[in-house]
Design a protein that fits this description.
Among the domains are: 180-293, Thrombin, subunit H (Beta Barrel); 299-402, Roll (Pdz3 Domain). The longest helix is centred in the N-terminal third of the chain and has 27 residues, at 68-94. β19 (382-389) and β20 form a beta hairpin. It is built from 7 helices and 21 strands. 35% of the residues are buried. The strands form 4 sheets. Strands 1-2-3-6-5-4 form a 6-stranded antiparallel beta barrel. Strands 8-9-10-13-12-11 form a 6-stranded antiparallel beta barrel. Strands 15, 16, 17, 18, 19 and 20 form a 6-stranded antiparallel sheet that branches. It has 404 residues and is α+β, with helices and mostly antiparallel strands. The protein has helices spanning 46-56, 68-94, 132-135, 280-293, 311-317, 335-339, 366-376; strands spanning 98-105, 112-121, 127-130, 140-144, 150-159, 164-168, 180-181, 191-196, 204-218, 230-237, 249-251, 256-264, 275-279, 299-300, 303-306, 325-330, 354-358, 361-362, 382-389, 392-399, 401-402.
Length: 404
């Protein structure tokens, strides 16, 4: 099975040009002076001039004509001020809810440093969301709030597939509240704000945009079956993220959490402008399960797929289209096997089913299928799956299992 491809890596402030109607400059002798009929060569006598000024003067306000350049600069300055004020307010409101997490390995009367990361207050009961790879660095967790308050935290649960974990402190400091989780869809181009503790520098805020959507991150889980899993709908951002930002929030300009910063693409180990954040919809699914059960159970089909079908793959697999999720292999005895899904021939690579629809939803690629399985299904749920077997559509019922 090919690995799922991560594509290439919030909205830019628009400068509004205000066009004003500019009057022509007038002299200090404002008015329109006409001539009197009968005056030689249009010359106005003193008496006639006085009469004319009294009866025929048009008073027009003197306005300095504006230039587009001046107005553009003014509008740009106004937009920058608004953005600056928004960011200042956002930081003041959200930073108290963002924590620094020091991780150590305790035991035998001493503690060895295991690293550090970030997190944020999930609810008023003291639950804190962070990354599973942050807490995996040790077994003792000290949470530091922005006001300097320090508390030991209990590990409630971890999930290797989503790279999320939940800690709990006994009580929140006065004035500290839970973050707000975003509900509106995230869009490419919108501003993205990261708050965390890169290199241990607590309370660091950085600004960028949402650079891409629909990325994926591999699970940290190692399975006995050789299966691999990936997390769908990951957010890509160019907001600077570095070691220590892990577990901290990615926010929109309303101060709502849109993701949990988790990884970077880098050849040096530091931020290169390509960061990845776990989407808030995954947090909404995983965090409650970790709090209630200490673990998360995902749906399982028992199928290996090609992540994306290229034009070359069409010929290789003998399929008639690139849209769909191609079944490379089916796990013997798994849900897909019991439902009758067919994998590709191990010798030729041909003959596998091409999944094109699940529960009436079109499947363009493996990412669509994985998103549906991870975010919208539970073990035991029955799916109606339509496949192309050759050129013939076939509908099968699959009863989902739980990931082994």
């Amino acid at each position: 099975m090919k690995n799922i491809r991560i594509g290439r890596l919030a909205s830019v402030a628009m400068v509004v040009i205000l066009g004003l109607a500019a009057c022509a400059p007038l002299s200090t002798e404002t008015g329109r002076i006409g001539t009197t009929k009968g005056s030689p060569q249009g010359v106005t006598t003193g008496r006639e001039l006085a009469s004319t000024l009294t009866e025929r003067v048009d008073v027009v306000p003197v306005v300095q004509p504006a230039t587009p350049e001046v107005e553009t600069k003014a509008a740009s300055a106004d937009a920058a001020t608004v953005l600056q004020d928004t960011l200042v307010t956002l930081y003041k409101e959200v930073n108290p809810s963002v924590v620094y997490i020091a991780v150590t390995s305790g035991g035998s009367g001493f503690a060895a440093s295991g690293g550090s990361g970030s997190g944020f207050v999930y609810d008023e009961d003291g639950y804190i969301v962070t990354n599973s790879h942050v807490v995996a660095a040790g077994n003792t967790y000290e949470v530091v709030f922005s006001n300097g308050d320090r508390q030991n935290a209990e590990l409630i649960g971890t999930d290797l597939d989503s790279d999320l974990a939940v800690l709990k402190v006994a009580a929140l400091p006065d004035g500290v509240k839970a973050v707000t989780l975003a509900s509106a869809p995230v869009e490419v181009g919108q501003y993205a704000v990261a708050i965390g503790s890169p290199f241990g520098e607590q309370g660091t805020m950085t600004l960028g945009i949402v650079s891409g959507l629909g990325r994926s991150l591999p699970s940290q889980r190692t399975t006995t079956t050789g299966s691999t899993y990936s997390l769908p709908q990951v957010i890509q951002t160019d907001a600077p993220i570095n070691p220590g930002n892990s577990g901290g929030p990615l926010l929109n300009l309303e101060g709502e959490v849109i993701g949990v910063n988790a990884a970077i693409a880098s050849t040096s180990g530091t931020g290169s402008g390509v960061g990845f954040s776990i989407p808030i919809d995954v947090v909404k699914r995983v965090a409650p399960s970790l709090i209630e059960d200490g673990e998360v159970t995902y749906s399982y089909m028992g199928v290996s797929f090609d992540g994306e079908i290229t034009l070359a793959d069409m010929e290789l697999y003998g399929v008639s289209q690139t849209q769909g999720a191609y079944v490379i292999s089916v796990t013997p005895g798994g849900p897909a096997d019991e439902a009758g899904l067919v994998g590709a021939d191990v010798e030729t690579g041909k003959g596998g089913d091409l999944i094109i629809e699940i529960d009436g939803r079109p499947i363009q690629n493996f990412s669509d299928l994985n998103t549906y399985l991870v975010l919208e299904t539970e073990p035991g749920q029955v799916l109606e799956i339509t496949v192309l077997r050759g050129d013939e559509p076939v509908t099968l019922s699959v009863t989902l299992g739980a990931r082994p």
